[in-house]
Write a structure and sequence with these properties.
Bound molecules: 2-acetamido-2-deoxy-beta-D-glucopyranose
Strand order of the largest sheet: 8-7-13-12-11-10-9
Order of helices and strands: HHHHHEHHHEEEEEHHHEHHHEHEEEEEH
Pfam families: Fasciclin
Shape: elongated
Keywords: Signal
CATH topology of the largest domain: FAS1 domain
Oligomer: single chain
Protein name: FAS1 domain-containing protein
Number of strands: 13
Amino acid sequence: MYLRHLLPLGLVAYGSAQSLTAILTQNNATLSTLTSLLQLVPDLVQTLSTAQNITILAPSNTAFSDLLSRNPRSAELMTNPRALSGVLQFHVLSGQFPSTDFTTTPIFPSTLLSTPFANVTGGQKVQFTLLNETATILSGYKQPASVITPDLTFDGNNTLHIISTVLTVPAPLSQTLLNTNLTSLSGALATARLTDGVNSLSDLTLFAPSNDAFRAIGSAVGTLSNNDLANILGYHLIPSRVLFSPELLSQDQMVLMTLQGGNLTIRRDGSQLFVNSARVVLGDVLVGNGVVHVLDNVLNPSNTAATPDPAAPTQAPAFSGVSPVADAPFTSGIIPTATFVPVTVPLNGAGKGAFAALPTGVMLAAGAAVLAAGM
Ligand SMILES: *[C@@H]1O[C@H](CO)[C@@H](O)[C@H](O)[C@H]1NC(C)=O
Ligand SMILES: *[C@@H]1O[C@H](CO)[C@@H](O)[C@H](O)[C@H]1NC(C)=O
Ligand SMILES: *[C@@H]1O[C@H](CO)[C@@H](O)[C@H](O)[C@H]1NC(C)=O
Ligand SMILES: *[C@@H]1O[C@H](CO)[C@@H](O)[C@H](O)[C@H]1NC(C)=O
Ligand SMILES: *[C@@H]1O[C@H](CO)[C@@H](O)[C@H](O)[C@H]1NC(C)=O
Ligand SMILES: *[C@@H]1O[C@H](CO)[C@@H](O)[C@H](O)[C@H]1NC(C)=O
Ligand SMILES: *[C@@H]1O[C@H](CO)[C@@H](O)[C@H](O)[C@H]1NC(C)=O
């Protein structure tokens, strides 16, 4: 207080007490679209102006114009206050997350987006990670956004990062499976009449076998009753816990109880993660009600003792006497509504820039999920 009087006036005004409005005005050349969108959601602005310890991920003007040109339907989003509010809530984090929090070990801050747009306790999450030495935020479908201007601070303990891309609100589980090439699992859930039930859960962790994993046990698929299938699928699901890769990698071995009742053994081998004998080939895909990790093998509740061979490029099936088939099982009539190629990042930062694919997928409206939920 006393010191304030000694400081030149300009310094005080530029110090820690500057308001969100001041940041938006100073960065008007980059943030004018966001500023005008905020005017459509006064309740959210009220929340932001009085909040403490928040971090705003502020999409640039180019981020919004890219979204509009990629998907004209997103214009609908921008004029629908309820949907817009949902999308913007997904861009506000509870807590202070400065740019030093982006490291090769990902973290998963909570956003203000909650039910019905996200059924994740404490708010839907985003992934912060350092990707190719760039501070990167991964959102729904593992679509990336980069931090362009980090660490603008306002009202004391609040942070704002300007980002390159509008974040994608994580879609409902069934929609995410459909659009990330997990069509066998999608079809298997539909066959077992579990799609709606699984979508309606909150806070889940799903281990999702890839289509290749289902193909590898293809000869057995025809002999499974719907009850067998439901048992197998339930053995892939951890209820009431959203477990991201850093937690799964935090111990050499851990046991998790599944919805089906049987236990899974999670094993760490260096930076690799195994579930029973299956390898996690893509981790941390955010969905509306939790997280999905993609596996290279279908888990077998009657073979809980299956162990991996970490040196092998692919794991032997956990079902005995099976042989592979050419066509992905359960995919008849299962048609994706979009194609997303997720960014793959090493699970725990096994070296900078070591990722296999860049996003080439068509990005739908960032808020398609929000528009779909409860409009
Ligand atoms: C901010 O930028 C927009 C768009 O370029 C412009 O219309 C508006 O007048 C600017 N506002 C301020 C306060 O400079
Ligand atoms: C803000 O965060 C700091 C440190 O992260 C914490 O000590 C403080 O209690 C928080 N304040 C509020 C109002 O949440
Ligand atoms: C990684 O960053 C470097 C330097 O910025 C760039 O030249 C390279 O193309 C990037 N690689 C990928 C895969 O984006
Ligand atoms: C900021 O956080 C510190 C502790 O981390 C706390 O002492 C201080 O009161 C906070 N200031 C505001 C304006 O919230
Ligand atoms: C998706 O699956 C199909 C058939 O299973 C396969 O041919 C295609 O390469 C896969 N695409 C991606 C991006 O993995
Ligand atoms: C699962 O593991 C828990 C804790 O390790 C144990 O208490 C329980 O009996 C196990 N359940 C089965 C079906 O093996
Ligand atoms: C959240 O749960 C509600 C009630 O079951 C459901 O209507 C809504 O679609 C769910 N939202 C998401 C994103 O999964």
